[in-house]
Structure formats: C-alpha cells, structure tokens
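Open question from group meeting: does this chain pack into something compact, or does most of it stay loose? Before anyone orders reagents, we agreed to write out a predicted structure and look at it together. Recording both the input and the output here so the notebook holds the full record.
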Amino acid sequence: MTGLAATDFDALDDILDDLRTRHDETPQWEFCEGFLAALVCCRRRIGADEWLPVLLGLDEGGSFASDAQREQFMALWERRFEEVRTALDTEINALDEDKAYAPEVMDVRGAIASLPPEEREEVEGEDIPSFAQVWALGFMYAIESWPEEWEAPKDKEAAKWHDLSLQAIVALTEDDTDEATLSAFGEDGPPSVSENRLNAYGEALWAVYDLREIWRNIGPRVQQVIKGDVPGRNDPCSCGSGKKYKKCCGA
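Structure tokens returned:
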C-alpha cells in the first residue's frame, strides 16, 4: 500500500470542504491527521463505525454526498493510517529521516507572512493557529473521546513515560507566544515560529513514537470475564429447559 501524494491530500481537503457545507464543524485535515495518529497509537484498534461519527459529526447532520465519496475518503484514510503506522513502527535515529513520521501540518502564520501587505491587513486581528497546534488538538481529541483506552499503564516506569509523552503533545495545543525567529519549513521563508516551538514540535513527535511503543509492548486490554453461579447437578438448568442441569447443559 503506497503512501499519499500531494494530490491525495488535496482530494481529502475537497471531501472535507464538501462535508463542511452540510456540517460546519467538520475539521480541517490537519486536525484529522492528529486524530488519525492517535488512533494508530491507541491501545485498541478503534473501528470506523466508532471514530467516523466522533470525527466528522455524521450523527449530528454531517453526511457524505454519496457512497462513492465515502469509499474514496475511507480508502485514502486507510492508506494514510498504514503509512503512519509503518513510520511509527520503524526504528529511526532522527526526525528528519525519510522514513520518519512527518505529520501533514500547515504553517498558517508563515503563509500569511508571505502575503503582500494589503492582503495581510485583511486577516490582521484574526485568531491564527500556531504551528502544529491544530494537529495536537486533533490528537488530544481522540484521547478525550476514548479515555479508557488511554489510562496510564500499571507499571510505574511505563506510566511515567506515558504521562510525559502526553504532556509533550498537550504543550503543542497551546499558542506559540514567543517571538517568531525561524521559518517552519525552510530557511527562505519569513519567520513564523519560535525556536521553543520547533523544539516542542520535535518532542511531541518523539512522544508519538513513545506512545506507540508503550501500547505495542503492553498489548490490548484484557476483558475480565465474570462467571455466574453454576447450578448444582440436580438443580433446574439455568437455560430454562425445565430439565435438571446434569441432563441438560451440564451433561
């Protein structure tokens, strides 16, 4: 299964834009990207029947335009899911390696800074998200939606590791209030992020790797099975047949 190309992400944006005409709270892809990464790291594989309504509000007025549109979205989602999972399961030494997980995030502040002065004035005063903030909000939204799957492990060392990882991602949900001195995606762009923000972004990506490894090592939650009282051999069978247990289910 091949990874997504730029045209595939454009197709996802088009689908989300169309969904937004029927449900105005449909998120941007960056939010979906964070949500997807959290599902990859989750202790349990959460099926589409669970996450689709939560992410896209399909039970609150949102709807795909057609079965074909839904199939296209799900096919692209699965390809991206496998791409992210493969990246997180691959050992790396640095985040700039080609095989490392690279979230699809936008540098909105950088894009605005690149606009002509008259166009920048049009958005002046608007609430512009910080670099990777929307991605982190999507990640945490998935965690908040299934908190039982994100309870800290019982092992103290793993629990500490787990909590520090979550704290690193939560840090990105906050605004970057420091002075912008760097460009997020290269040296040629206008300054749009602080050095602290880029460092926090790197820490958050390593945290995603850590969370994936924690739950891979621990495995899925074991469901406790509670057995009911077993009837005596001469008692009426609990199935309601009217026979003695020894001649029915206890035979």
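Observations to bring back to the group:
The two ends are 51 Å apart (CA to CA).
The CA atoms of residues 53 and 194 lie 36 Å apart.
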